[in-house]
């Protein structure tokens, strides 16, 4: 396709500037987002073995609930009955206790089981929260601010991301046919990186369009629902499924958890219940929601769909978030969430999203790399022998931010096994940001060329901390052999980082002396 040269040049400028502004944040979002494809397995990998007795059967669960409510009456406000027990859900019954200071989150979660002699066991040490930190890094593009502050910033970055996709496609259109499968590996390293950038961007374009549009929806979720409510009415009721409760009156007899599960399976045969969420409805009456999954449909939440249940009869009463039972509007909205979360199609889609997420992070890294190198080339043509301060800083951040994010996530993930039950969300956050800031500071102090080698080695060593932590903790931390894939994946990524460090070292020593990736001091042109 032919386009006027000045149009292509304008879009190229736009693509470069929006890319350099948003690229570093998008690298963190995509790298952490790729890991969240396996958030639950990561949580199980990082969580210590449970100290409670094995969970009572579902038939004995009413006995457990009665004993908990007798000794911990605050649990009556709301508690969960886990139907699937693993390291991430180590107890049959859990509940959260929040004070006035925890109005917007936080609080203490408790876990309960029955000892072999029927005595009640209650524990406050739960599964690791490191997977939750990685998810927050993904949602907030690595920003350490409150959610209310970070999300609008994330939304603005998502809009820039959309502009970068459109402008990048326009720039590529004139050479689309000739460069479609081009990957020219040779002495012209910049040309090779450009080919890699173009191929990654073009073949993953549908994935990136989905991510950009859904990220904007997530960032301005509340505003969209508010506008919907003003325009059509009733939008607020769809914003969150409420716990289903019977009409007001004397407390009715409710079905047992085993009976509830049986009734749900009768009404939704393909749905797998995983958690029963009990609460209080109108007038303090019992209320109930069931969470689970159905492999045939996408899910509204990252790992589950949900439905309101009448606790007296077991009838499904709320289907806005129920896979396969939603109306057209709710199913359409859910499809946006499912396309972003990749929670349809089983592990095949999750691995595909994982690889596309890593490729997306690499796309932003190569984009920044190309932009900084082009800027340096223009400076050199203008007569600047040494790099300008802005170019040095941008080059250093292009290396320091991605490598700091990789090292920080790897070390804080490994720390979950080394610190065990003592590792809190705050400790994981401190470890991540400490590594991230050290890497960024090191890159600024040493420059892009030297730190590119050194921080790639740091990232590889940090990645190897993951299997090393598993060796130290022992096999008792695995509740399924498949969790060893976490360690194997870390080893593979460490090897790739070591190889990138070796390639960067070669380029720093023997590449073009005017490149920002060269450690050879540039010289002025003769004359």
From TrEMBL:
Protein name, UniProt field: PepSY domain-containing protein
Family matches, as InterPro entries: PepSY-ass_TM
Keyword Iron-sulfur set for record: no
Domain of life according to the entry: Bacteria
PANTHER family on file: IRON-REGULATED INNER MEMBRANE PROTEIN (PTHR34219:SF9), IRON-REGULATED INNER MEMBRANE PROTEIN-RELATED (PTHR34219)
Membrane-crossing segments per the record: 16-38, 153-177, 198-220, 351-372, 393-419, 425-445, 457-478, 484-505
Keyword set, alphabetical order: Membrane, Transmembrane, Transmembrane helix
Keyword Transmembrane helix: yes
């Amino acid at each position: 396709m032919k386009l006027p040269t000045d149009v292509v040049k304008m879009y190229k400028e736009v693509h470069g500037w929006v890319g350099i502004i948003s690229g570093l944040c998008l690298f963190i979002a995509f790298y952490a987002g790729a890991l969240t494809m396996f958030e639950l397995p990561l949580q199980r990998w990082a969580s210590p073995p449970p100290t409670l007795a094995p969970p009572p059967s579902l038939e004995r669960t009413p006995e457990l609930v009665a004993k908990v409510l007798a000794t911990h009456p605050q649990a009556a406000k709301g508690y969960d009955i886990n139907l699937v027990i693993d390291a991430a859900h180590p107890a049959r019954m859990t509940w959260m206790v929040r004070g006035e200071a925890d109005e917007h989150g936080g609080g203490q979660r408790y876990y309960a089981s029955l000892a072999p002699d029927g005595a009640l066991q209650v524990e406050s040490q739960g599964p690791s929260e490191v997977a939750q930190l990685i998810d927050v890094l993904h949602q907030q593009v690595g920003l350490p601010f409150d959610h209310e502050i970070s999300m609008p910033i994330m939304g603005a970055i998502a809009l820039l991301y959309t502009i970068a996709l459109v402008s990048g496609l326009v720039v590529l259109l004139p050479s689309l046919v000739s460069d479609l499968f081009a990957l020219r590996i040779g002495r012209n390293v910049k040309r090779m990186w450009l080919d890699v950038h173009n191929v990654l961007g073009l073949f993953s374009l549908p994935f990136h369009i989905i991510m950009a549009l859904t990220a904007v929806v997530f960032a301005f979720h509340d505003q969209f629902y508010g506008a919907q409510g003003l325009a059509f009415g009733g939008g607020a009721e769809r914003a969150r499924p409420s716990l289903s409760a019977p009409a007001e009156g004397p407390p009715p007899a409710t079905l047992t958890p085993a009976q509830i599960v049986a009734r749900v399976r009768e009404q939704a045969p393909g749905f797998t219940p995983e958690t029963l969420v009990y609460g209080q409805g109108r007038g303090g009456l019992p209320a109930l929601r069931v969470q689970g999954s159905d492999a045939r449909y996408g899910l509204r939440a990252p790992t589950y769909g949900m439905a309101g249940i009448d606790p007296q009869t077991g009838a499904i009463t709320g289907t806005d978030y129920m896979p396969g039972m939603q109306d057209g509007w709710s199913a359409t909205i859910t499809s946006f969430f499912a396309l972003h979360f990749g929670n349809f199609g089983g592990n095949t889609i999750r691995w595909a999203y994982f690889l596309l997420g890593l490729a997306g992070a690499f796309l932003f890294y190569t984009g920044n790399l190309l932009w900084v190198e082009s800027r340096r080339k223009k400076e050199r043509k203008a007569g600047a022998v040494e790099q300008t301060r802005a170019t040095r800083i941008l080059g250093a951040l292009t290396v320091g931010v991605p490598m700091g994010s990789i090292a920080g996530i790897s070390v804080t993930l490994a720390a979950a096994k080394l610190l065990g039950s003592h590792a809190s969300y705050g400790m994981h956050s401190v470890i991540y940001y400490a590594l991230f800031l050290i890497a960024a500071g090191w890159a600024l102090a040493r420059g892009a060329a030297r730190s590119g080698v050194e921080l790639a080695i740091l990232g590889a060593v940090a990645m190897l901390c993951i299997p090393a932590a598993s060796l130290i903790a022992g096999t008792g931390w695995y509740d399924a052999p498949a969790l060893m894939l976490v360690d194997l994946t870390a080893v593979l990524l460490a090897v790739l980082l070591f190889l990138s460090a070796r390639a960067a070292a070669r380029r720093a020593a023997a590449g073009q002396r005017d490149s920002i990736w060269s450690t050879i001091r540039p010289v002025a042109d003769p004359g």
